[in-house]
Design goal:
Radius of gyration: 18 Å
Number of strands: 9
Bound molecules: NADP nicotinamide-adenine-dinucleotide phosphate
Number of helices: 10
Distance between the termini: 28 Å
Helix content: 25-40%
Length: 273
């Protein structure tokens, strides 16, 4: 499993992690951790806290320092005090003293200054090693950065990014590059390519002895800032996804996938599904 630096931080994180929406299967999550997918993504929203509880159960036998656990606060709970309370609830369900990254799930009605002050408090209190956002476009990101107290930085932006939805390459990835932030691709496996595109993916998959899904994950994470968090409750899927963490695509293969699944122009806001 390849790892890389998580944005500006000095934390080495596996390029392929694990999603847990709506709820994970404990055995599948553990198989993934054993295969190096130690970045586990959850949220207070998922299963109304059940996802965090199952993640807590799954990770309990592992040394805490070997994991990179991420959770998210709902925008409706994201006042300064609300962030602190939500984090305590999440930590209890996750059976841990801290998370590795704590995210605002999406931008809501609470002023960003207030939410960001709450996130910064978590870092100061040692409850979150890093903080970040999700579903932020460059406009939100610029505002978010301004709203953060000095010496606190966003480590990542978690966004919808897959072979159908490559518009982040023209918007959020350039922002991330300028700000040395990680981009975490959610729903990374969605694709609706035609049969010709599937042939391209299939040929590359055969050459690397992995599945087309693994090739998609390798493509999405070839940018030095990008990570992906596929969710799999099926052990065979977990193993296929973990294999992506060892695939390095050639320039020709990247160009072929780029042609088969072209970047479309974004119409409207950053998509979320
Ligand atoms: P996804 O990971 O792209 O797709 C999950 C689906 O793909 C499941 O049905 C899974 O089946 C299947 N699958 C997994 N690996 C496969 C493989 N190798 N081959 C074929 N099928 C495979 O979609 P997602 O769950 O929407 O996104 C992933 C994670 O991102 C979520 O779980 C969540 O943690 C996060 N997320 C965040 C946000 C946000 O707003 N920040 C939004 C959506 C998602 P099985 O489960 O049966 O294996």
């Amino acid at each position: 499993m390849k790892t890389k630096r998580f944005g500006w931080t000095d934390l080495e994180v596996p390029v392929i992690g694990q999603g847990t929406w709506p709820v994970p299967a404990v055995a599948a999550l553990r198989r993934g951790i054993d295969l190096g997918m130690t970045h586990v993504d959850t949220a207070e929203m998922y299963g109304d806290g059940r996802s965090e509880e199952l993640v807590g159960e799954a990770i309990a036998p592992y040394p805490r320092a070997s994991l990179f656990v991420v959770t998210k606060v709902l925008p409706s709970n994201a006042t300064q005090a609300g962030v602190a309370t939500a984090c305590e609830r999440s930590l209890r369900r996750l059976r841990t003293d801290y998370v590795d990254c704590f995210l605002l799930h999406w931008r809501g009605d609470v002023a960003l200054e207030e939410t960001m002050a709450g996130l910064a408090d978590l870092v100061r209190a040692g409850k979150a090693r890093t903080i970040g956002v999700s579903n932020f476009d460059p406009w939100d990101l610029r505002e978010g950065v301004v709203a953060l107290p000095a010496a606190t930085r966003i480590a990542c932006n978690q966004i919808l990014y897959n072979l159908d939805e490559r518009t982040p390459e023209a918007h959020e990835l350039p922002w991330a590059r300028d700000n040395d932030s990680a981009v975490v691709a959610y729903t990374p496996l969605a694709r609706s390519g035609d049969s010709a595109s599937e042939v391209v993916l299939g040929e590359i998959a055969r050459a690397h002895r992995v599945t087309p899904e693994a090739v998609a994950l390798a493509f999405l994470t070839h940018d030095p800032l990008a990570f992906a968090i596929p969710k799999a409750n099926t052990i065979a899927h977990v193993e296929a996804n973990a294999a992506a963490g060892d695939v390095t695509l050639s320039d020709d293969e990247i160009a072929a996938i780029d042609r088969a699944f072209p970047v479309r122009q974004r119409v409207g806001p950053l998509p979320t599904n």
